[in-house]
Structure formats: C-alpha cells, structure tokens
Design a protein that fits this description.
Blueprint (H helix, E strand, L loop, with lengths): L4 H6 L3 H12 L4 E7 L4 H17 L2 E6 L12 E2 L14 E6 L4 E7 L4 H16 L2
Parallel strand pairs: 1-2, 2-3
Antiparallel strand pairs: 1-4, 4-5
Helix pairs in contact: 2-4
C-alpha cells in the first residue's frame, strides 16, 4: 500500500490526538520511545505523526535508531542497539509508552498491519497509560 504523508496524516483519527492531549494533562506525564530505522517505510510514515503528537501535546518522543541514522523529521536519536529498553528488538517499528508516574514502560505497540489499526492501538495505549 502506497501512502504519502499527507494522506497518512489526513487519515489520523481525531481520537489519537485527543487521547494524547488528555495523557499530557495527566500529572504523571508520558513519553514515547520510537524504535525505528531509516530504511523502514512504515517508520518513515509513522515518524511525522509522532512528531506532530510531540509538537501538539508536549509528549516527549525519543527515537531509538536501530541503524544509527535519523528518521525524519527526527534528527537526533539514541543508539537503539545499545539502549537497554530497545536493544532486544528484532523488527521495527515499535512504539513504547513510558509512564513517568510509574517510571516504566506500560504499553508496547509493535508492527503495522494497517496504519489505521496501528494508530488505533497507539491511541488506546496512550489513553490507558495516562489513567494508570
């Protein structure tokens, strides 16, 4: 399936952004660890959405790059192969939800069956983690 960034962003369910806004309002605060690599087309499609989420809600997004390359629009990254929370992953993309209140990963959204399904799972994960 070929999907350009505009079509992908236009397909975003409003619930994803609303869930993230509620999550950000939580005193616990949430963060996202995005396990990706520059050659992955799904990672390239997801990255702008996570950047938009970060810009609009203030949720921190850390790119853990598995090939030591940026995934635009993220230009800075951690070495995903050396990061203790991401080194074990064999496939990308993976999105981890970090709950600051509990100081742990509470949810893991991995793989992409369809973009809509991925975004639905991400929205649910953000919402669930924000109420823990």
């Amino acid at each position: 399936m070929s999907m350009n960034r505009r079509k992908f962003v236009a397909a975003l369910p409003a619930a994803l952004l609303l869930s993230a806004q509620k999550a950000n309002a939580s005193p616990s605060g949430l963060g996202v660890i995005f396990v990706a690599q520059s050659t992955c087309p799904y990672c390239a499609a997801i990255a702008p959405v996570l950047k938009q989420l970060q810009d609009e809600t203030g949720i921190d997004v850390l790119l853990a790059s598995m090939d030591l390359q940026p995934v635009l629009p993220f230009t800075s990254f951690e070495d995903g192969l050396r990061h203790p929370l991401t080194a074990h992953f064999q496939s990308v993309p993976q999105v981890l939800i970090f709950n600051g209140k509990h100081q742990r990963i509470t949810h893991h959204v991995g793989g992409v069956r369809t973009m809509r399904h991925f975004l639905s799972r991400l929205s649910s994960a953000l919402r669930e983690s924000s109420v823990l």
